[in-house]
Amino acid sequence: MIHLIGLDTDPTLVWFARRAVAAGHHVKLVNLRAVTRQPWRVELDASSDRALFHNGPGRPLPLSAQGGYYVRLIDLSPVLPAAERGRWRHLIGALAAYLDGVRGPVVNRPGGQLQNGAKPLHEWWLSHRGLRVPASLTSSDPARIAGFMDRHGPVVLKAVCGTRGRARLVTAGQLAGFAPAAGPVHLQQWVDGYDVRVHLVDGEPFAERIDTDAVDYREPDARSRHRPAAVPEELRAAMGQAAKEMDLRFTGWDFRVDRAGRWWCLEANPMPGYHGYDRRCGGAITRALCRLLAPDEG
Amino acid sequence: MPTSEIAVVDEADDLLGASFARWAAGQGVPVVRHRLAGAARAMTVVVAGSRVEVSPAWSLLLRPLRSPEPPASPDTRFGWSEAFATLWAAAALSGRPVVNRPDAWGWLSGLSASIVRNQRRAGLPVPAAEAYWHQLPPPGGYRYHQDLDTRQTAGDPAMIRFGRSRALPATRGWEQVVVVGGEGFRVISAGAGDPDPVPASLAVADRLSLSFATVSWAVPAGPGPAVLAQVNPFPTLHECRPVICQVFPALLRRLLG
Questions:
Q1: CB-CB contact of A188 with A169 (8 Å)
Q2: How many CB contacts within 8 angstroms connect chain A with chain B?
Q3: What confidence tens digit (pLDDT) does each residue in B80-117 have?
Q4: The CATH homologous superfamily of the domain defined by B171-256
Q5: What is the pLDDT of residue A169?
């Protein structure tokens, strides 16, 4: 049995559910949009935890602390009116506590490392695990920003916190009038080359090379060519060890490969929206996730 | 120590942050209070390979920070998240003392909202179950109910919309200890002759990676040891007031490194 927890409007969750069901897996969906409007209870104790949800009036949905969980917890409370906020905040809090104690595999456990949400920390942490990471500066100081750009030339501007994830290339001229009140900004050394996205499922890599005319190939108007790629074994081992240390069974890694063939790690995403990549590789990522989450269902 | 090397990052209405800064100034040690945005804009983090540089070299006392709530605009919320991420990274990577330092796992990552999870993480037995619920209070045996919206406790869950309940045995009192690093200060005592809760409180804070916290224990009416009831990583001035003369010097010692 695979338990799915998330939103029925989340395309990644819907993709996973359809592929898993089509492959013959038993799937139980906890649709947070429905559950927030129904009674629920989560009990935590010394021996075994229990969770009782309802997907609708009179439709109880007991969960087991055994079995696998594919989880995409999205807390909508920051964007909801006050009356609605508590529904999400308290449910997400209770689910996070429950999932922390589930004995079976969880993709991904809410207690896993969250450092991707603080980019300078994330980049430093990855560097310490043997990955080659481009230099970065996080600052509101115009002089420091100018100095960084003098050293590195055009640099990539991206969010510090990981949301609004589209990156763009900026020149010194574009940041010449930078005012500290607009900061802090996160600038990263630009690596000329091509992109590689690697999805890592419990150490098993699924890699795709992306050649694009855009700085960020995810831009809607980017013209990109995707093709399968091989990951160097030493790099795969480093990624696997880092993912294990982060307690994340499923990660989405972004690399740039420079003209000399060196792989530069940009980030490891703890909740990858992987469905587009999976479509191109014939569902191989979902199959690997299902093997991890329901090994007995073959 | 040069001036302004100790910074409190807090909200304007944080009584403990304000009181600590005033007290430290009276001791001749300037402490500057910053709101999140100001602190983040003052900070620079450089990462080059495994080398990191964080400036300014502040010692940090981190206090609870409120994220913007609707009707705040998406840009306001994004700006807050950018500042929070910068502070998180700077505090985690700084070589200076940081009270309740965040790390790669998150902000206060050692602490769960669930007391049962905290008991397990602290290596304590779990003698009393805990339930979170919405319109579905737990069956009999659960004695203490907390309204998750107001944080008020009640004996009857009937009026609670979102609740947290615990199956604690009947208590005859509570113990509370303020922990600062390796020092613990007993605030409330259930009664004469009870075992000293300070060593256990220090151990809990250490296992949860907290250098400043109030640790509360429920003392059962019958036999049996005290049960961990709550861990607050942001002690309030009200909680600390009975032992403030010990807490502030301990905090200052810690921040001075």
A1: no
A2: 182
A3: 999 999 999 999 999 999 999 999 988 888 888 889 98
A4: ATP-grasp fold, B domain (3.30.470.20)
A5: 92
CB A25 within 8 A of CB A91: no
Q: How far apart are CA A11 and CA B55, in angstroms?
A: 41
- Domain map of chain B by residue range? 6-99, 129-166, 171-256
Q: Characterize the bridge pairing of strands A2-6 and A68-71.
A: parallel
User: Which residue from B50, B38, B51 is spatially nearest to B8, judged by alpha carbons?
Assistant: B38
CATH 3.40.50 domain range(s) in chain A? 2-107
Which residue spans of chain A are classified as CATH 3.30.1490? 135-189
Phi-psi region of A180 (alpha: psi -120 to 50; beta: other; left: phi over 0): alpha
How many Cα atoms sit within 13 Å of A84 on the Cβ side? Answer: 12
Do A41 and B136 make contact, defined as CB atoms within 8 angstroms?
yes
**Which of A46, A97, A140 lies nearest to residue B126, judging by beta carbons?**
A46
CB A272, CB A250: distance < 8 Å: yes
Task: Return d(Cα B67, Cα B80) in angstroms, integer.
Answer: 7
Compute and round to an integer the Cα radius of gyration of chain B: 20
Query: Looking at the DSSP assignment, which residues form a beta bridge with residue A69?
Result: A3, A106
Q: Are B8 and B59 in contact (CB under 8 A)?
A: no
The side-by-side arrangement of strands in the sheet containing B31-34 is B31-34, B6-9, B59-62, B98-99
One-letter amino acid of B238: H
CB A195 within 8 A of CB A217: yes
CA distance A225 to chain B (A): 30
- What ipTM does this complex have? 0.92
Instruction: Count CA atoms closer than 13 A to B65's CA, side-chain side.
Output: 23
Q: What is the pTM of this model?
A: 0.93
The segment(s) of chain A belonging to CATH 3.30.470.20 are 192-269
How do residues B125-155 score in pLDDT, each as one tens digit?
Answer: 888 889 999 988 988 888 889 999 888 888 8
Architecture per CATH, domain A2-107, reads as: 3-Layer(aba) Sandwich (3.40)
Does residue B253 sit in helix, strand or coil?
Answer: helix
User: Is the pLDDT score of A176 beyond 70?
Assistant: yes
Fold of the A135-189 domain: Dna Ligase; domain 1 (3.30.1490)
What sign for the dihedral angle of Cα B236, B238, B241, B243? negative
Whether residues B132 and A115 touch (CB distance < 8 A) is answered with no
Classify residue A206 as exposed, middle or buried by CB count within 10 Å of its CB (0-12, 13-18, 19+): buried
The answer to whether the beta carbons of residues B4 and B30 sit under 8 Å apart is yes
Show contacts of A84-87: CB within 8 Å, 24+ apart: A85/B69, A85/B70, A86/B148, A86/B149, A86/B161, A86/B162, A87/A36, A87/A37, A87/B134
- How far does the CA of residue A262 sit from the closest CA of chain B (Å)? 14
Taking a C-beta distance cutoff of 8 angstroms, is the pair B190, B225 a contact? Answer: no
Cβ–Cβ under 8 Å, residues B178 and B184: yes
CATH class of the domain defined by A192-269 = alpha beta
Cα separation, A242 vs A269, in Å, equals: 12
B74 to chain A nearest CA, in Å?
Answer: 8
- How far is C-alpha B188 from the geometric centre of its chain's CA atoms? 18
Return the CA Rg of chain A.
Answer: 21
